[in-house]
Write a structure and sequence with these properties.
With about 525 residues, the chain is an alpha/beta fold. The chain contains 16 helices and 16 strands.
Length: about 525
C-alpha cells in the first residue's frame, strides 16, 4: 500500500492572515466542518494567544470537530503554549504547533538572539508543549533561508525533545523547487533521528511556486503538506489545497503516496471560503475556477465529445462540480431544503435557525424561479452573523435614481430595537444608501472594498456583494445577496457594521508572528 500524505489545512489560521479575510467564530466553525467532511487530517484552527476572540474560536472548533485533529499555533513562549493547550483541550484529537525563527536575518533582526539561544528555546518549547499533548509539531520559521547545518541541529534536537512532526516553512516564498526539495532530502539523510518524525512543508506563493515547492518536497520525503483552500493566505497566499491534493491523486504514477481526502467536497469548500472571506476565485484557477473544466476551442470540444480524456485529466465530478441543478421553489418543503443544505456541509444547530433560513429561502423563491446550490450557500452565508450581535437591522430602503438627477436614498434602520430614518444623496444609488446608513450609525468606518459578483447566470440571478470596512486597524467583511443589487449592497454594509460595532475587539492575526 502507498504511504499516506497528511493534509494539514491552515485556512483558519494562515489563510485568515490575508488582509481582510478575518472570520467570525461561526464562520470558522462552518469552514472547519466542511474540512472535516472532506477528511482533512489536521485543521489548524487559529493562533489562540493572538486575542481572546481567537482563543474562543479555536476552542469552539475543538469542541465541534471529531474526525480531524485540531491544532493551535504558538510561539516558543510559555504564554502562547498555555493558551494553545487550553484552546485545543476539548478536541477529540489535538495538536500544538510551536515555532521560532532560524534564518540569520530573523534571528539577528527580529529575535535579537544568537543561534544557540534559538536552539535552546526551540527545545524548551517542544518539551513544554509535550506536557499537554503527545502530538507536538515544531517549525523553524524561515527555514527556506536558514543555514542547512544549523537547521539540521535544530531539527535533531526538537525531534529528541518530542516533536512528532517537523515542519519546514518557506516563509517568504523564496525557494525554488530543486533547492527546496534538496533541503528536505538532506534533512532526512543528515538528521540521525529523522525516522522518528514526519517531515512537513509550509510554502508561500510569493514567486508563484508554493505548490511546485510542496510537491517537490513530497517527492523528496515530506509526508505532510500545509495548505489552504483556494491558496488563501497573507501576501501572495499559500500552497493551494485543491492543487496539491489533485496533483497527487491524478499523478499516482509519479507520487509514492496519496491522501485520504474525499475530493468531492473540494468545490463546495472553495465556494464557502470564497463567500465568507470575500475573496473571489479567478475563473482560470486550477481545479475550482469556473473555467477549470470549460472548453472554448472547437478542437478541444470535438476531442472531449469523442473521448473526455483527450483534454481532461480529471473528472469534474470528482472534485465536486455537478451537472445537476438544484431546483427548488415556493412549494418546496423544509425537509428538502434542510437535506440539500446538509449535503452542502451546512447543519442547523437549532430549529429556530432552520426556520429563519427557510423563511429567507421562501422569500428568495418568490423573486427567483430556480434556486441553485450557489444561491443556497449565499443565503446561509448571509445568515451567518450571530443574532445576538445584530444591533442594526435594515427595515426599509427607498432609492431614486434617474438620468440627469442626483441619486437619493432613504433608509430606515432598527438600532438596538429603535427605528431611525435618514436620507442622503450620492454619486450613485449604492453610495447614497451607504451615506444614509452612516448618518444613522456614525460608525466612522472606512470603506476598503466594494465587490459585486453574480452568483448564477440569468437576468434573475442574485447579485452577491462584499463590503470591507476598516476602523482603527480593525478590518471586517460583510456579505449580502439579493436579486436587487442595491438591496444586496445594503445587506452587506449592515452585516459589516454589526461586526465593526460589536464590543468584542479581536486583533487581526497578521499582527502576530506568522510562519
Amino acid at each position: 500500500m502507498k504511504e499516506q500524505l497528511i493534509i494539514f489545512d491552515t485556512t483558519l489560521r494562515d489563510g485568515e492572515q490575508s488582509p481582510g479575510a478575518s472570520m467570525t467564530q461561526e464562520e470558522k466553525i462552518r469552514i472547519a466542518k466542511i474540512l472535516e467532511k472532506m477528511q482533512v487530517n489536521v485543521i489548524e484552527a487559529g493562533f489562540p494567544a493572538a486575542s481572546q476572540g481567537d482563543f474562543e474560536a479555536v476552542a469552539a472548533v475543538a469542541e465541534q470537530i471529531n474526525d480531524s485533529t485540531v491544532c493551535g499555533l504558538a510561539r516558543a513562549v510559555e504564554h502562547d503554549i498555555d493558551r494553545a493547550a487550553a484552546a485545543v483541550k476539548p478536541a477529540t484529537s489535538s495538536r500544538i504547533h510551536t515555532f521560532i525563527a532560524t534564518s540569520p536575518i530573523h534571528m539577528r533582526e527580529k529575535l535579537r538572539m544568537q543561534p544557540d539561544e534559538v536552539l535552546e528555546q526551540a527545545v524548551w518549547a517542544v518539551k513544554y508543549a509535550r506536557r499537554f499533548t503527545d502530538d507536538v509539531e515544531f517549525s523553524p520559521e524561515d527555514a527556506g533561508r536558514s543555514d542547512l547545518d544549523f537547521l539540521c541541529r535544530v531539527v535533531e534536537a526538537t525531534i529528541a525533545a518530542g516533536a512528532g512532526t517537523i515542519n519546514i516553512p518557506d516563509t517568504v516564498g523564496y525557494n525554488v523547487p530543486s533547492q527546496f526539495g534538496h533541503v528536505i532530502q538532506q534533512l532526512i539523510i543528515r538528521v540521525p533521528n529523522s525516522d522518528q518524525a514526519i517531515f512537513s512543508v509550509h510554502c508561500h506563493n510569493d514567486l508563484g511556486l508554493a505548490v511546485a515547492n510542496s510537491l517537490e518536497a513530497v517527492m523528496n520525503g515530506a509526508r505532510q503538506v500545509e495548505c489552504t483552500v483556494n491558496g488563501l493566505g497573507e501576501r501572495a497566499g499559500n500552497a493551494s489545497l485543491e492543487e496539491i491534493v489533485m496533483a497527487v491523486r491524478t499523478r499516482q504514477d509519479v507520487f509514492p503516496c496519496d491522501t485520504r481526502l474525499d475530493t468531492k467536497h473540494i468545490v463546495p469548500a472553495s465556494r464557502l471560503v470564497s463567500n465568507i472571506t470575500g475573496f473571489p476565485v479567478q475563473p482560470n484557477k486550477a481545479v475550482v475556477g469556473a473555467n477549470a473544466f470549460a472548453h472554448e476551442s472547437g478542437i478541444h470540444q470535438d476531442g472531449v465529445i469523442k473521448k473526455r480524456e483527450t483534454y481532461e485529466i480529471m473528472r469534474a465530478e470528482d472534485v465536486g462540480w455537478v451537472a445537476n441543478r438544484m431546483v427548488l421553489g415556493k412549494h418546496s418543503g423544509r425537509n428538502a431544503f434542510k437535506t440539500r443544505l446538509k449535503e452542502l456541509g451546512v447543519d442547523f444547530k437549532t430549529e429556530e435557525e432552520l426556520n429563519s433560513a427557510f423563511s429567507r429561502f421562501k422569500s428568495l423563491a418568490d423573486k427567483k424561479h430556480e434556486i441553485f446550490d450557489e444561491d443556497l450557500q449565499a443565503l446561509v452565508t448571509e445568515e451567518g452573523l450571530d443574532q445576538e450581535a445584530e444591533r442594526f437591522k435594515l427595515i426599509t430602503l427607498h432609492v431614486c435614481s434617474q438620468t440627469g438627477e442626483t441619486p437619493k436614498a432613504t433608509v430606515t434602520l432598527s438600532v438596538d430595537g429603535t427605528e431611525s430614518t435618514s436620507a442622503a444623496d450620492g454619486s450613485g444609488p449604492v453610495d447614497a444608501t451607504f451615506k444614509a446608513m452612516e448618518n444613522i450609525v456614525k460608525s466612522g468606518g472606512q470603506l476598503q472594498l466594494y465587490s459585486v459578483s453574480n452568483i448564477t447566470s440569468g437576468t434573475d440571478a442574485q447579485g452577491e456583494v462584499t463590503v470591507r470596512l476598516e476602523k482603527g486597524g480593525r478590518i471586517v467583511n460583510g456579505h449580502g445577496a439579493d436579486t436587487d443589487i442595491v438591496i444586496a449592497s445594503a445587506k452587506s454594509y449592515i452585516m459589516a457594521l454589526n461586526k465593526l460595532m460589536t464590543q468584542t475587539v479581536r486583533q487581526h492575526p497578521q499582527h502576530s508572528q506568522p510562519i
